[in-house]
Amino acid sequence: MLKDDLAFAVHLSFNGNCRQAFNYYKTCFGGELTVQTLADTPHGIGMNKEMRKAVVWATLKNEYFKLVGTDLTDEDSIVSGNNVSILIECPSFTERTKLINKLISRNFCSIENTNPLVNIIDIYRIRWILSVH
Question: What one-character DSSP code corresponds to residue 116?
Answer without folding.
Answer: S
